Amino acid sequence: MANQGNNTRIYAVCGKGGVGKTAFTAMLTRALLDSGRAGRLLVIDADPAQGVTNALGMQVEKTMGQVRESIITAARDGRTSELAEITNAIDYLVMEALVESDSLALLAMGRTESLGCFCPVNDLLRDAVTAVAGKFDTILIDGEAGLEQINRQVVEALDCLIMMTDSSARGLRTVAILKEMIEEKKVIRCNRTGVVFNRGDIDENYLAQAAVKVGVNVFGFVPQDPNVADYDLVGRPLLELPSDSEALAAVRRIAAILEP
């Protein structure tokens, strides 16, 4: 997508499992909405676990993974007429999978059941997602630890990659690998990258120095916040966090850095 001659801004959040990526993405959604500068906002839940979908309190009836499976099944069964019908209706199917509320829209990629290389199908779906996403001003993608799935199924380029980590050595190693992949243009093109330290219980100066050693910019630090844990425990949407939430305040500061 990046940026098809329009002003659509595309952000993606990646990081190893367990670093609070889902909660951060949900809070960043809230911060972008509250800022009033995001325009029409589309959140793409590219993690098969659909954590952000749940954290936003939204329900999906169809995922892009299900659309993909219907195309593959029709192709395998040799049902030419059905395959042609599905292919011609791909844009409609993407719109059907889109969930919209008063303030934002959500597209869940879901799980991919079929194994093997289905590049033509992936390309078809990515083009359709690109066409829909191009109607929005801001795209926020919640991805897996790596970037391959985002590139394969969602977009070919990003304006900004936010690499989430905790204070662990394993988390920083994941950040270093992501940075190397971006710099070598092995997976996806990206204009800007930075790290966010989440739930860090170590001195921020120490973490900042660790980021310097890895060679990444620091977008910010998100503190431990009992509100987030309490909301997660009962399944309450993180969009409803109180305005005085310390974690939300930190994410607002990060959003201000990210937005033009």
Q: How is this structure best described in words?
A:
By secondary structure, the protein is an alpha/beta fold. It has a single domain (9-258), classed as Rossmann fold, CATH 3.40.50.300. Helices cover 46% and strands 18% of the residues. It is built from eleven helices and eight strands. The protein has helices at residues 21-35, 51-55, 64-76, 80-88, 90-97, 119-133, 148-153, 169-183, 204-214, 226-234, 246-258, and strands at residues 9-14, 41-45, 99-100, 105-108, 138-142, 157-165, 189-198, 218-222. It has an eight-stranded mixed sheet, with helices on both faces. Helix 3 packs antiparallel against helix 4. The radius of gyration is 18 Å and the shape is globular. It starts with 8 loop residues before the first strand and ends with a helix. The model is unreliable at 1-5 (pLDDT under 50).
